Amino acid sequence: RPLRRRAGGAGRTVRRRLEMAIVAGVTALDQLTKLLVVRELPLYETVPVIPGVLNLTHIRNTGVAFGLFNTTDFAYKPVAMVLLALLALVGVTVYAAQLPVANILASAGLALILGGALGNLVDRARQGYVVDFVDAYWGTWHFWAFNVADAAITVGVGLLILDLFRPESSAAPAGEDTRVS
To answer: Is 177 noted as a catalytic residue in this protein?
Structure first.
C-alpha cells in the first residue's frame, strides 16, 4: 500500500501546545485557589457566597471522585490513591496522543481532564488528600464539595460527550489522513 502523507504536522504542533497550555493553566489555577483557601479559610470553616446556594468551605478529601472512599481507611491509602491517579493520567495521556487533529472538542476535553487530574494528583502526592472548597447546595441537600480541578474534569467529560455526537463527516476534511504521526 502506498505511503500517504500524514496531515496535521503544523496543526498537530499548534494543538499540542494549546493542550499543554490548558493542562498547565488548569493545574496552576487549581493549585492557586487551593493555596488561597488553605491560607485564608480554617479547616471546616464556611463563608457564604450566594446564601442558600453556594458556600466556600475548606475540607479535605482523602477519597476519590464524589467523596468515594473518603471515610474508608486502609494501610497505604495515600499511596494507593496516588498510584490510581497516576494510572488514570497515563491512560488519558495515551488516549489523547492518539486523537486525530480534527477532534478539537475531544482534545480540549482531555486537556481539561489532564489538568484537573494533575492538580488533584499534586495534592494527593504532597499531602495525602485533596483540598475541596466549593459547596453547592439547595436547602438541606449538598452536592459533594469540589475544587477547580474537579470542575475542569467535569467540563472535560462534557466536551468528550459532545464530541460523541459530532457527525463523522465533519471529523476530517475529505481525503485527509488523520492517523497519528
So the answer is: no
